[in-house]
Design brief:
Helix content is 74%, strand content 1%. The relative contact order is 0.13.
């Protein structure tokens, strides 16, 4: 009957159907309420911001105050001496530039190889079931397991203590995660689009470049951001493959703030803040593409 209200229609539905129509967010609103949701949001933000606030305040304290005072905020006035020493005592700018070069170039190479490789695996079943399983296995394998073989191979070709050697290792390191992420984006593309392109005379490479790549562009951007972050944060491979300032990346460079009397906490905090700024800027610039790419890859539409 057309005159039925919405409440009457809901009462006529079976209880199981009504329960299925209740979303998870609606349940959260009922169970937690507005104060509960605000409390969880504040708790989540505190867990993220408190370490950053601690680093900011530590970098603005006098060195003697850092060791003797347990207060969170500076009690003897704000000083920039730790920031000046952080850039003067250690070639921090060089480390940041090295990390940018390795991160951007390795991400570019990883995506350049991962896109056609993933397309071949998904659409043409290259490697059968073994190749995807092997790629996923290399991703979940602890990196420490392959450090000695990688060091031996890099030394064999004479690329130790060089940015090019680090670039190649980071490309290899990011390949599994890049293939794994791009796989979900390619699978949601209807295969009819590619068949239509083949009927129009497109080759497989032209179909990939003109049809598939534009459709998965948000996923490529999201994968690039994630691979750049992983490369930027890598410490293990940078530690065993680099020895001098000309090739050291930022994570290893921060460990250089060790003096005769122990760790220089103020300088290390200032350096750490300088190191997270480029990543924060990267995520801010591509936040829309990152969210869109991570959500579109998991929804078939």
């Amino acid at each position: 009957m057309k005159g039925k209200s919405e409440g009457q229609e809901c009462r006529e539905l079976p209880p199981v159907t009504v329960a299925r129509n209740i979303s998870g967010s609606a349940i959260a609103r009922v169970v937690l309420g507005r104060p509960g949701r605000i409390f969880l949001l504040v708790l989540f933000m505190a867990m993220i911001l408190i370490p950053i606030i601690y680093m900011i305040t530590t970098s603005l304290k006098e060195p003697i105050q850092i060791r003797l005072s347990g207060s969170l905020f500076p009690t003897g006035g704000v000083t920039l001496v730790n920031w000046l020493k952080a850039f003067r005592n250690v070639p921090l700018v060089r480390y940041l530039i090295n990390s940018m070069i390795v991160g951007v170039c390795s991400t570019f190479l990883a995506i350049l190889l991962a896109v056609p490789a993933t397309y071949s695996i998904v659409r043409f079943k290259t490697g059968g079931g073994f190749l995807p399983a092997w790629i996923l296995g290399t991703y979940v394998m602890p990196p420490i397991v392959v450090t000695i073989p990688i060091f031996g191979m890099v030394k064999l070709v004479g690329l130790q203590d060089s940015l090019f050697g680090m670039l190649l290792v980071h490309t290899m390191m990011n390949m599994p995660i890049a293939v794994w992420l791009i796989d979900s984006y390619i699978r949601v593309i209807p295969s009819e689009l590619e068949r239509a392109a083949w009927i129009d005379g497109y080759s497989k490479w032209e179909t990939l470049l003109r049809i598939v790549v534009p459709l998965i562009r948000p996923g490529i951007v999201a994968t690039g951001v994630i691979c750049t972050i992983l490369s930027w944060n890598d410490f293990l491979f940078a530690l065993i493959l680099t020895y001098s300032s000309r090739s050291m990346t930022f994570p290893v460079g921060v460990s250089r703030y060790v003096g005769e009397h122990g760790l220089q906490f103020g300088e290390m905090s200032a350096a750490a803040l300088a190191g997270i700024v480029p990543i924060y800027i990267l995520v801010f610039l591509f936040s829309r593409n990152l969210v869109e790419g991570l959500t579109r890859g998991g929804v078939k539409g």
